[in-house]
Amino acid sequence: MTLAQPLADDPVLLGRQREMAALKVVRSGADASAVGTGKTISSGRALAHRASTQPRFRGLVVAEGRLLGQWREELSRGAPGRGLAPLAPNLELLFLSDDRQIAGQIRRFDRELGDRPGVALVPNSVLDRYPSDLQAIPWHLLIADEALRYANPATEAHQALAQVRFGCVADCWLLTATPRGKSAEHLDVLVGLAVGDRAMVTERLNTREAGDLMDEIHAHRLRVNYGPHLVRVTRADMQAWMPEVRPAEPLALEPDPALAELLDAIRRGGQEAYRRLLEVLRELKTIEAGSELYRRALAELARAQGVVLGSVGVVRPVRTW
After folding, report:
1. Dist CA 136 CA 144 (whole Å)
2. Whole-angstrom Cα distance, residue 308 to residue 277?
3. Least enclosed by CB within 10 Å: which of 28, 196, 201, 319?
């Protein structure tokens, strides 16, 4: 088993994040920390520390396209608004785009970097469609965010990640919140993907032997089996550094005169339209079916119904024949 000394001198990491980042520097695994405990921060600092110690460091970060912007900002600029320093200012970043040949972008990035460290930011869609192109060069570290999308071995997402992981990646970390509501066997799949063990993915012996993960003894046995490859930071661990947030309280805002007049007009218009609708329904009962007057009454009914539904924001087609 590899032992890692916490990064106690890191200026960004707090509490157990220092232990987590140290593990990510030296090995592979799955980070199942709770929401809001800094999985991105510890991963970013791990990238920075690896880049400072490994020659020609090359890394991959795979995430949803909407999250990659946050990854790029926090790695290069941090978050000045909340006092977060850049996580990995010593890295060059490449945002892969599917409008050009993927392997060509990677090779050019690698060639231009030379001995400098670099990380490629990969949208999920690119991984799913071009796993072979991502193997254009060997990678030191792969970080995959929202890892539950890879928990089912039958999906294309899992197969694409497995192809890259087993084909050209030295170490891998999968980031996910606690997989509540998911099968316990998914943990074996995620840890197996992370450490590069195909048997864990196919046989899933750990979770089958552990039994009910809601049972404290079974859950402890599972953690012992996985050792440091399945790690978790809870919100209680980070409570000392979390800001105190008051619960949200609804604010009652009075409308200005123009808005109050509009709302009153809508309310009165809807009431009048509803009364007219009831009148048309009563008249319709007294008219012979199939006559011209009956068809005209149906048209008036449809118009009145449309006014009523429109006054409450509902649009629904109504037949008039």
Report:
1. 18
2. 8
3. 319
Distance CA 137, CA 58 (A): 9
For 116, which DSSP code?
A: S
More confident residue, 254 or 204: 254
Contact between residue 200 and residue 225 where contact means Cβ atoms under 8 Å apart: no
- pLDDT at residue 306 is higher than 60: yes
How remote is the C-alpha of 213 from its chain's centroid? 24
- Tokens in use for 218? 């079974």
Gap between the Cα atoms of 55 and 50, Å rounded: 9
Under 8 Å CB-to-CB from 76, ≥6 apart: which residues? Answer: 86, 88, 89, 91, 93
Q: Where are the alpha helices (DSSP H) in 65-204?
A: 65-76, 102-113, 124-129, 156-168, 185-195, 198-203
Query: Distance between CA 195 and CA 187 in Å, rounded?
Result: 12
Select from 3.40.50.10810, 3.30.1280.10, 3.20.20.140, 3.40.190.170 the CATH code of 17-241.
3.40.50.10810
Cα 12-15-16 angle, rounded to 5 deg: 110
What letter represents residue 303's amino acid? Answer: R
Report for 14-18, 36-40, 106-110: range of highest mean pLDDT: 106-110
Q: Which residues contact 170 (CB under 8 A, 6 or more apart)?
A: 138, 139, 140, 141
Q: What is the pLDDT of residues 130-180, one digit of tens each?
A: 999 999 999 999 999 999 899 888 899 999 999 999 999 999 999 987 655
Q: Give the Å distances, CA to CA, from 8 to 13, 14, 19, 34.
A: 8, 9, 8, 22
